[in-house]
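Hey, resending since the last one bounced:
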Amino acid sequence: MQALTYESYRTEWIADIIEGNPSSVLVGNRFSKKLISQWLELDEYNDDIIFCDGSGDGGIDIAYLHRGDLNDNGESEGDTWYIIQSKYGSAFNSNTTLLAESEKVLETISGFRSKLSSISSELVDRIRNFILKSSNNDKLVLVFATVDPLNDVEKRILKDIKTLGESRIGNLFDVDSVCITSVALKYFLFVKRIILSYSISKCRPYLVHTSNCIFSA
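The structure tokens again:
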């Protein structure tokens, strides 16, 4: 049996995105929908996922409000708005993209961008209302979605963006990144659990080679 490596997983994952020779806009839309839905473990057609990508999006491609669970005392653990900035392939230009797009999103959320689409305008109103009524447990997370993991320099820039966002929006602001590696790691761990479970149930020793499947998320 041929071993499943990250490289083969990545190639197959991207194949769905570029199938049919789509336009660059459609490729970007497909990429963001697939990556974010898998990362957050949501149905791609979940009504709570808001797609804004296009003219007048204010830098927000996708937004999703995660409602927190209740703790043992019946208190909410906090809600989280995920604000997604998706960049596929050449659309991502390292630290230049991170800084420019984060500034655009922060200006939008702060109310300094008036030329927004109707979808983005309604979304921003919801987010601003969320910020005003937020508790210490609530969060607003700006997420950069890319094909490959960010390098060390880009990760340091995320820390600068977090500081900038906190100064403008408050301590509920945070920043994160997600890539194909992130969802692949979940997939490989899931497959490994299935194999081990099957091995135990059948009382057969299976040797699972993971040397090609271990990578940093």
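The first strand starts at residue 49 and ends at 51.

Sorry for the duplicate.
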